[in-house]
Amino acid sequence: MNTQSNQDIPRKVAARQGWQWVLEGFRLYRRNPLLLSAAFGLLFGVVMALGLIPVIGGSLSELASPLMVAGFMAAYRALDEGRELELPHFLAGLQGPAIPLMAVGAVQLLGTLLIGQVMLAMGFDPQAVMAAAQTQKDPADMQAILNQAMPALLAGLVLFTPLIMATWFAPALVLFGGARPATALGVSLRAVARNWAAMLVNGLALGMVLFVAALVPLMLGLLVAMPVLFGSLYASYQAIFAVWADDAAPAGDKVVSL
After folding, report:
1. Among 146, 166, 158, 154, which Cα is nearest to 66's?
2. Fewer CB within 10 A of the end CB, N or C, for the chain?
3. Rounded distance, CA 23 to CA 42, Å?
């Protein structure tokens, strides 16, 4: 896979590429599965531990998540270039553009909080839904609770979609191209929108991988599935933003310069 990048060109790719990205992620994962799985377990544990800190834990966890994503992007870039994978690759976010990456995390956090408030204002009560599920209420009562929550859930889905689109490629754009957070968010949003079909196929494929992984006891399957997901993210970044030697990008495809 070509590893040069030109982030002025979020190219449009075929829908079938979405499945190929998962295969590419698995191929890269197989080059050093033990280190990739161990690194995910360690970094994910750190992010979860941050979330346990009273009052500010959730915010710290959200701010740190793009740093973890950037670390895996650097790790897969090393594997893709045939270099030996080392633990410092996973700290690329901390060693490099930590503040811009945390700014992306801050956007995720703020967006999540605002959307949560909108859902609450629409009458969504997550504690009531969880309590009803745990107590195994009468099916009719449970259906009534779900019917009441459905408008808020649909509104949340509609609002979360552009937030996910904007933050999907943002860590890679910041890490590999030095993009400012606002620019990275905008370019990521356009790239995902332009490749919605491939992203949909990719999302469905990754969903199946995560579903199978969730069936493995003690969540051990996630130690494989999540690194593969990051590998798929790297592959999709390369496919959409990489410059290919035999490609001449049309001038009309240029976007805001980073």
Report:
1. 166
2. N
3. 24
What token pair was written down for 194? 């332009």
Task: Give SS3 for 164.
Answer: helix
Q: Rounded to whole angstroms, how far apart are CA atoms 156 and 163?
A: 11
> What is the phi/psi pair of residue 93, to 5°?
-65, -45
pLDDT value of residue 146: 75
Span between the terminal Cα atoms of the chain, in Å: 23
In this structure, which long-range contacts are made by residues 35-40, counting pairs with CB atoms below 8 Å and at least 24 apart in sequence?
Answer: 35/85, 35/87, 36/72, 36/75, 36/85, 36/227, 37/223, 37/224, 37/227, 39/71, 39/72, 39/75, 39/87, 39/90, 39/227, 40/72, 40/222, 40/223, 40/226, 40/227, 40/230
CA 184 to chain centre: 14
Q: Are 93 and 171 in contact (CB under 8 A)?
A: yes
The model carries a pTM of: 0.85
> In the numeric block, which tokens belong to residue 4?
């040069």
Per-residue pLDDT at 255: 39
The amino acid present at 181, given as its one-letter code, is P
Which positions of the chain have pLDDT values less than 70?
1-9, 128-129, 132-138, 141, 243-258
Distances (CA, A) of 185 to 96, 100, 119, 168: 18, 11, 24, 8
Q: Where are the alpha helices (DSSP H) in the chain?
A: 17-29, 33-51, 57-80, 92-95, 98-121, 126-135, 139-168, 170-177, 181-194, 196-214, 222-241
Contact 186, 166 (CB under 8 A): yes
Question: In the structure encoding, which two tokens stand for residue 103, read together?
Answer: 């700014």
